[in-house]
């Protein structure tokens, strides 16, 4: 147990958290690739839309203009009221002149109808298109998609003025053009393929750039994490290299400033703590000689006490008690100073714990005052002297401050190889506010104990001895009243060897 205010040279290192798949590198990579993918797809979709619209618009305008010019030239030779033969000749001529463009032409005049040889059906001529062509003196067009093929359908009414064909009055002659847009579709498909092929390299390049950027960003972050772990291990002189003038450089400089301030504070605290330990050890050591003389004198006076009366006898008893109390306090301070200086060692021995605990009670004359539940056969490797101190302090506290009956119990730990030593009483218990502080130095649970013979170091020394064995101690209140102290010790202290 580290004493209150003690600054360890090496802070305990916590277990590092496992790195999840959603680490900073993965998040940076995913975010960068996602942005690149959305940008590439958005740019590709916009480019494709604009290119497709431009291609189709240009193709449409070209076809409509060619159709109008061809019709204007062909209808000059038609009579004002053409018959079936003239309609057949007209559509054949228009289809023949634009055979390479795969024109399919349909002509209607009243009930007469003529279609070019390549026109298998007129599914693309919707009723809306026909109504618009037959009622308006302008060209009308629309795109029709059938399966995987698209076609441009153009409707053109022929108009005239009184002396010939002009673009003024509907003549009743209507021409329809159906042109498959194979070349335009091929161009659009080529655009889609180009966008798809460009997207994959763009994503690959984005992933590569993301890795490079993530590496550049994570390098100082990893350095900061490594430096923080080293500082957690007690290396307060660690510093980071400050490169550049960006936010990461500011972070590194802030870490260095914090580490420098912390190192200075820790150094000063260690110096003060070392001075305080040295002072307590020196004072305790210097007091032992005069205390030995005072103890010898008080022993002599104590023998003469029965012959003394009145205030003289009271004074002798008081000086005897206070001298003994001061001697115990000095011994406790000496013991604490050994723990602070990390000079306390275990002299391990393989013991029958029940026998050792009975011996502790017998030496102090407590067998009749303490109930015991000490099964034989439980052996552990412990320091006999330190175990005696632990049990004596706990049982002594229970007898002085608790209520009868006081019980000392020994049993095996249920979860792991170890033993449990339990001291319980039936007194008033421990105030809840005092439970977290019981094992602090010079702490006394209540006003009644502040003037007792206790120095306030007994439980602190007890906890230090337990922790030196690699064990744990805790205090609690029993549901039925009274306090219970539980000591958990391993059967063999880990990493503790008996000094040679």
Order of helices and strands: HHEEHEEEEHHHEHEEHEEHHEE
Largest sheet: 6 strands, antiparallel
**Which stretches of 5+ consecutive residues score pLDDT under 50?**
1-16
Mean pLDDT: 77
Structural class: alpha+beta
In short:
This protein has 500 residues and is of the alpha+beta class.
Labels describing this entry:
52% helix; 500 residues; 13 strands; rod-shaped; alpha+beta; single chain; six-stranded antiparallel β-sheet; 10 helices
Describe the structure.
The protein has helices at 24-74, 84-97, 127-135, 182-232, 247-304, 310-340, 353-363, 384-401, 447-450, 458-468, and strands at 104-109, 112-115, 140-146, 149-161, 164-165, 169-180, 349-352, 370-373, 379-382, 406-412, 418-424, 472-477, 483-490. The protein is an alpha+beta fold and 500 residues long. The strands form 3 sheets. Strands 1, 2, 3, 4, 5 and 6 form a 6-stranded antiparallel sheet that branches. A hairpin with a 2-residue loop joins strand 3 (140-146) and strand 4. The protein is rod-shaped, with a radius of gyration of 51 Å.
């Amino acid at each position: 147990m580290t004493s209150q205010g003690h600054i360890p040279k090496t802070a305990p290192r916590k277990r590092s958290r496992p790195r999840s798949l959603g680490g900073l590198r993965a998040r940076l990579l995913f975010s960068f690739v996602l942005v690149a993918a959305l940008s590439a797809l958005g740019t590709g979709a916009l480019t494709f839309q604009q290119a497709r619209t431009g291609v189709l618009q240009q193709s449409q305008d070209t076809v409509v203009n060619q159709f109008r010019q061809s019709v204007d030239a062909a209808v000059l030779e038609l009579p004002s009221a053409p018959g079936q033969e003239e309609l057949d000749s007209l559509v054949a001529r228009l289809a023949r002149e634009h055979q390479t463009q795969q024109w399919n032409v349909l002509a209607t005049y009243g009930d007469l109808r003529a279609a070019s040889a390549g026109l298998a059906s007129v599914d693309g001529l919707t009723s809306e298109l026909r109504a618009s062509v037959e009622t308006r003196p302008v060209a009308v067009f629309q795109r029709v998609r059938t399966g995987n093929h698209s076609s441009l359908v153009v409707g053109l009414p022929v108009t005239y003025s009184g002396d010939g064909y002009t673009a003024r009055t509907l003549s009743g002659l209507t021409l329809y053009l159906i042109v498959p847009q194979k070349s335009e579709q091929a161009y659009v498909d080529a655009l889609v393929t180009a966008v798809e092929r460009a997207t994959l390299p763009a994503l690959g390049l984005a992933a590569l750039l993301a890795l490079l950027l993530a590496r550049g960003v994570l390098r100082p972050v990893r350095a900061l994490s490594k430096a923080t772990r080293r500082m957690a291990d007690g290396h307060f002189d660690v510093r980071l290299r400050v490169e550049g003038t960006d936010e990461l450089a500011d972070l590194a400089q802030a870490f260095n400033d914090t580490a420098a301030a912390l190192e200075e504070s820790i150094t000063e605290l260690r110096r003060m703590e070392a001075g305080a330990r040295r002072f307590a050890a020196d004072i305790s050591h210097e007091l032992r000689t005069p205390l030995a003389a005072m103890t010898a004198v008080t022993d002599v006076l104590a023998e003469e006490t029965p012959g003394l009366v009145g205030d003289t006898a009271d004074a002798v008893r008081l000086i005897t008690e206070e001298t003994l109390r001061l001697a115990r306090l000095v011994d406790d301070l000496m013991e604490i100073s050994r723990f602070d200086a990390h000079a306390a060692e275990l002299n391990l021995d393989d013991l029958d714990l029940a026998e050792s605990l009975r011996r502790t009670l017998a030496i102090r004359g407590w067998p009749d005052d303490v109930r015991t539940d000490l099964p034989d056969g439980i052996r552990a490797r412990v320091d006999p002297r330190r175990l005696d101190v632990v049990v004596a302090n706990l049982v002594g506290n229970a007898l002085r401050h608790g209520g009868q009956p006081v019980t000392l119990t020994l049993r095996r730990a249920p979860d792991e190889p170890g033993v449990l030593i339990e001291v319980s009483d039936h007194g008033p218990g421990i105030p809840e506010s005092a439970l977290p502080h019981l094992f602090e130095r010079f702490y006394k649970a209540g006003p009644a104990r502040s003037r007792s013979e206790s120095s306030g170091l007994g439980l602190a020394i007890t906890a230090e001895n337990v922790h030196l064995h690699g064990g744990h101690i805790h205090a609690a209140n029993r549901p039925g009243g009274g306090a219970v102290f539980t000591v958990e010790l391993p059967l063999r202290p880990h990493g503790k060897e008996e000094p040679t």
